[in-house]
Structure to design on (441 residues):
């Protein structure tokens, strides 16, 4: 068998293997053929396609360049090179390739079409529109152009114009990948969850293994209060991919919101096991720390939440939780620092003022605490917890009239609060006790 015949046979086997999606095996056959005849430009281009299937984009770029060196006039290979560069985020180089294509052949519509997407991704929407209209002059019914232009308009909040473009894509190609999802997202931006759900489900019908669509459906379910539907979608994702750490994390957040701490913790710990260093771990530490606070495992909560704060030092939600854990561990000075950090970013945060007041009471600084309780009430006039805390602080300072005023306010906003009712019933005893104490000292 001659070398040339062997090369042709290997190319044929590579084609058969590619049709079966056996990319690695196909690449081996193609490389063997190229070793026999390295001057075949088409084979280098085919090699680039296989390498892209294997997500080896840098190697694919080199293969396309080699093909172009051998045949500089093949527009399709130059187009593939530009698209491959774009996938790598090498937008400037991709734009150069497409501009060069347009310079060589001003009637080659794809050279304009694909620049719409790049300019849109770069936020250069004026240039994206310019490329769109240039492409329209050459080909009025290009679905790619309308899709990329729709994405540019959607990014600028021009929902109606974006919808027009995406619906135009459907008129041209009913099966265009991703367009139903885009239409669904546009309808959601308009507040129409029914149409949004219908289009995303239509996309799912064409692409049932796409977990991103299930994430969209779960998010839609959450937006309309259908938490069971959201749970079902995340469970479907996990069924498709048992190692999907993000699905476990989102499912954990749902269980946390529903108050099921045990299920939430199982999901968060599974997500942590799967994520390694890839996920932003402060989110996991934050949520696991929250479960620990809820289940009164305060030492473990402290460790988790301190790690989360180290990565996100100005997050008020994490600081509040850490403050709760520190208060429970009888560390009011450290808890107070958390409250002050929240107030540094939000001087009228009612909950931070209230918690800071509690910290000061535990340090024996009831007078200073009252100031913060009143600031909490000023910021949130129905803050019954702050009113009750203020009443207690006033009692500690023997300020009976002020204590009674606070308890009267509590009864207005929280008439069934058992602590407030008990304190009101016994206020006269506290006052009498203070009177007796003054007489005997």
């Amino acid at each position: 068998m001659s070398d040339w015949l062997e090369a042709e046979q290997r190319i044929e086997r590579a084609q058969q293997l590619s049709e079966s999606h056996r990319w690695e095996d196909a690449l081996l056959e193609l490389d063997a053929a190229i070793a026999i005849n390295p001057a075949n430009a088409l084979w280098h281009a085919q090699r680039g396609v296989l390498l892209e299937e294997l997500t080896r984009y840098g190697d694919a770029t080199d293969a396309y360049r080699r093909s172009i060196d051998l045949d500089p006039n093949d527009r399709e290979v130059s187009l593939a090179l530009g698209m491959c560069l774009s996938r790598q985020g090498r937008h400037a180089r991709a734009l150069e390739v497409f501009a060069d294509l347009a310079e060589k052949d001003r009637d080659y519509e794809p050279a304009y079409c694909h620049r719409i997407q790049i300019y849109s991704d770069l936020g250069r929407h004026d240039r994206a529109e310019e490329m769109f209209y240039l492409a329209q002059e050459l080909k009025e019914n290009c679905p790619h152009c309308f899709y990329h232009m729709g994405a540019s308009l959607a990014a600028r909040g021009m929902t109606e114009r974006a919808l027009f473009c995406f619906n135009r894509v459907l008129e041209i190609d009913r099966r265009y990948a991703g367009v139903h999802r885009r239409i669904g997202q546009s309808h959601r931006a308009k507040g129409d969850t029914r149409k949004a759900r219908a289009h995303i489900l239509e996309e799912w019908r064409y692409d049932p293994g796409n977990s991103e669509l299930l994430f969209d459906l779960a998010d839609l379910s959450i937006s309309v209060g259908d938490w069971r539907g959201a749970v079902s979608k995340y469970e479907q994702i996990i069924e498709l991919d048992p190692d999907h750490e993000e699905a476990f994390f989102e499912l954990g957040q749902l269980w946390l919101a529903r108050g099921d701490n045990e299920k939430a913790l199982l999901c968060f710990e599974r997500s942590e096991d799967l994520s390694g260093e890839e996920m932003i771990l402060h989110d996991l530490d934050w949520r696991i720390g929250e479960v620990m606070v809820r289940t009164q495992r305060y030492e473990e909560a402290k460790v988790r939440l301190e790690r989360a704060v180290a990565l996100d030092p100005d997050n008020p939600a994490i600081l509040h939780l850490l403050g709760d854990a520190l208060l429970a561990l009888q560390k009011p000075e450290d808890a107070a620092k958390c409250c002050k950090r929240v107030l540094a970013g939000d001087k009228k945060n009612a909950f931070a003022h209230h918690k800071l007041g509690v910290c000061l009471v535990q340090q024996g600084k009831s007078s200073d605490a009252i100031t913060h309780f009143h600031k909490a009430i000023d910021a949130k006039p129905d803050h019954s917890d702050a009113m009750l805390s203020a009443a207690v602080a006033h009692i500690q300072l023997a300020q009976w009239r002020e204590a009674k005023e606070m308890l009267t306010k509590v009864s207005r906003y929280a008439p069934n609060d058992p602590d407030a009712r008990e304190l009101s019933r016994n206020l006269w005893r506290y006052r009498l006790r203070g009177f007796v104490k003054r007489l005997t000292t």
Q: What stands out?
A: Confidence is low (pLDDT under 50) at residues 434-441. The chain is about 80% helix and 0% strand. The CA atoms of residues 23 and 294 lie 50 Å apart. The longest helix spans residues 418-439.
